[in-house]
């Protein structure tokens, strides 16, 4: 992650706490190549960690005080104690992501001591690139590094971060974002089985670019609609008598639909078909088959648009522009929770400038903004920096 971010975190640390930090840690955001809303259905996802994330400058304390300064929020400082109940602040307040992780770290029984932390991040916020998961996992990594908790595995950190998001921040997300932030591998996407949490690194083919384009459409409905989709998936699983939609195939989905509500049936169809597409995509990516990847990404987008109904007209338009500019070798789809946010595109690196130009010339958000283009690298998960 960038030297500039390290500089920002270090300066904020010194200004707030009056001495240099002892350690630096980082955790990345992510982009999901395919497998959307499948994680909370015990299914498969294929994200990669990206070279945008959260960096924390940190020092251990010998008492029970945690002080946190946020460089990106006007150097605001939050302070709380480990030996008193850790409570959330107002909904949406940045300290909740830190407090939640510390609360659930404590609940593991680890002998936590206080810390001074300075946060700096460069994941575009509200874009669906997991800025919050990157912050949560970075906080867990900071305590792991400061206190040498070698027993705390990357998967443990991801589960603690997810618990903080579910129970403290109040977003009922699945495990994808936190797990890839903790376990991402440089140069690879990560096929995750969200039931067993087994992961398989799928190397990105050489000379393939991962482009993210922010539609500048705000993800307004994401909280309420996300939870509605979860409930609809659970209702479908109950109808078919399966633990999760992961356990259903397309033949049974159709044969046993019975009197299942038509909308719920479409939601389930997205999950069942998306799981298969994700497994197929892992094979295609490993084989460097960008044509097949492009077809799977296109089918994923149609399924999100028509069956799961989580896209937005401007995002559909952006994906269309990207697909046309890329042609048959590579592809594009909306990525993340939906209702705005970003599209992800894969293409031969030689096409990047032409695709960038097509987006600049042809895309405008409903409020007239141009899309923001990021070309990123599949990056390493959370860890310490020297
Ligand atoms: C959000 C959630 F946090 C993830 O768990 C996942 O469900 C994703 O939306 C949709 O695939 O990022």
Automatic annotation (TrEMBL):
Active site, per annotation: 177 (proton acceptor)
UniProt domain GHMP kinase C-terminal: residue ranges: 282-364
What's the superkingdom here? Answer: Bacteria
Tell me which PROSITE patterns the record gives: GALACTOKINASE, GHMP_KINASES_ATP
Q: What is its EC number?
A: 2.7.1.6
Q: Which residues form the GHMP kinase N-terminal domain?
A: 96-184
| Localization (cell) | Cytoplasm
The positions annotated for binding ATP are 126-132
Name one matching Pfam family: GalKase_gal_bdg
Write down the Gene3D superfamilies for this protein, in alphabetical order. 3.30.230.10, GHMP kinase, C-terminal domain
Which keywords accompany this UniProt record? ATP-binding, Carbohydrate metabolism, Cytoplasm, Galactose metabolism, Kinase, Magnesium, Metal-binding, Nucleotide-binding, Transferase
The molecular function GO annotations come to: ATP binding; galactokinase activity; magnesium ion binding
Name listed for the protein in its UniProt record: Galactokinase
Binding residues for substrate, per the UniProt record?
Answer: 36-39, 226
